[in-house]
TrEMBL record:
Keyword Ribosomal protein attributed: no
Name listed for the protein in its UniProt record: Uncharacterized iron-regulated membrane protein
Record bears the keyword Transferase: no
Domain of life of the organism encoding this protein: Bacteria
Annotated region (Disordered), positions in chain: 354-384
Keywords: Membrane, Transmembrane, Transmembrane helix
Length: 384
């Protein structure tokens, strides 16, 4: 493959998608700790005095229905003990709110517009640039371009990979050009696998989001019309644990329409750490409390397992604090590649103009001049 042609593809892919790669890289590194950041901000109400009384979702749901009767309700964090607040998210087509409820009485202690929360604001910037469907499409295209840029970069640097990984290439931090080139090559090589994983999983997530919008034909979902819940949520949680040993329900989606079921999502003790924590669910009838359906990822084909890996692999929600720190550190790689790639391009263009001026001889204005073809060849040697 022609080296100059490959470099041109790599350069233009990086330049066009660069600003979006920069945004996704920086926001992604922050979102690794989104739960920790949000819990720190709301720490005055999240952590409650320890109590011997049981956690009550029934009381929490009753409180929500009294204040927000026609909303799509999801309990996003259900504590095992009454020492933490119950967290809920309620949605309507044009609105979303986050609630923190007392774990025993169910009283609403804090009711926040999602736009005022740090994590949701960052998530919208990461996935749609705060531009709705158009932003999602732009970032999907940028993600695809980033994957192609990684592939062309791998091909371009393939002979240097072993030397970089074994530290046999001496860094040359003499000036801005050499420093940018060294960082671009070293970061690109060391973070190659991570970048491919996060780029591919990010594209898959964005593709699902975009296809969901397309399939809805741009029509907003119907207004929530939840049915009366006559069965006990607390009993359902206990029944699910007893019926399926090893199942830990921690996310509850209430029915938003009269024909919907109550769904308890959670993790099984047989799941791998990189399985999505809500890959399994059990459904119950909101009136009778009888089980209507159950889904466990362990019984599903390989493709379902791979899809379950997507979200944890993209955001680092697996393996604990060490993995999150590594994700935060390597998550800066796309931003570094974007910045250093832009600097390399600017320095190359500047040097090209300088060489053109230096090689332009004084001549008779009536005498034709032969054009030199050696400028690009000279510059190609300074790229890496």
């Amino acid at each position: 493959m022609n080296k100059r042609f490959l470099l041109s593809i790599h350069k233009w892919l990086g330049l066009i998608a660069g600003i979006f790669i920069l945004i996704m890289g920086l926001t992604g590194s922050i979102l690794v700790f989104d739960d920790e950041i949000e819990h720190f901000i709301q720490r005055d109400i999240i952590y409650q005095p320890d109590s011997d009384q049981p956690v009550s979702l029934d009381n929490a749901y009753a409180s929500i229905m009294r204040k927000h009767p026609n909303w799509d309700v999801r309990f996003t964090a259900v504590p095992d003990k009454a020492d933490r607040a119950i967290e809920a998210e309620i949605r309507r087509p044009d609105d979303r709110r986050y609630l923190y409820l007392h774990p025993v009485t169910g009283d609403i202690m804090r009711d926040l517009d999602s736009e005022s929360t740090f994590s949701y604001w960052m998530l919208k910037l990461h996935y749609q640039l705060h531009s709705g469907f158009a932003g999602e499409v732009i970032l999907l295209i940028a993600g695809l371009m980033f994957i192609c840029s990684l592939i062309t970069g791998f091909w371009f640097y393939r002979k240097a990979i072993r030397k970089v990984l074994t530290f046999k290439i001496r860094p040359r931090f003499r000036n801005l050009q050499s420093t940018s080139s060294e960082l671009h090559r070293s970061v690109g090589v060391w973070a190659l696998i991570f970048n491919l994983i996060t780029a591919i999983t990010g594209v898959v997530i964005l593709l699902i989001i975009v296809l969901t919008h397309v399939q809805s034909d741009g029509e907003p979902p119907p207004l929530p019309d939840p049915p009366a819940v006559e069965a006990s949520l607390d009993n359902m949680m206990e029944t699910a644990r007893e019926s399926y040993p090893g199942f830990d329900p921690s996310y509850v989606r209430m029915p938003a329409q009269p024909d919907r079921q109550i769904t308890l999502y959670g993790h099984m003790d047989t799941d791998l750490p990189i399985h999505y924590e809500f890959s399994n669910y059990v459904q119950y009838d909101p009136r009778t409390g009888m089980e209507s359906n159950a889904f466990f990822v362990r019984n599903q084909p390989v493709t379902t397992h791979l899809l379950s890996f997507t979200y944890p692999l993209h955001f680092g929600d697996w393996g604990g604090l060490t993995i999150k720190i590594l994700y935060c550190f390597f998550g800066l790689a796309p931003a570094i590649l974007s910045i250093t790639g832009f600097i390399i391009w600017r320095q190359r263009e500047r040097k090209k103009r300088q060489l053109q001026r230096q090689r332009r001889p004084a001549r008779d204005p009536f005498q034709p001049q032969e054009r030199s073809n050696s400028i690009d060849e000279t510059l190609d040697e300074t790229v890496v």
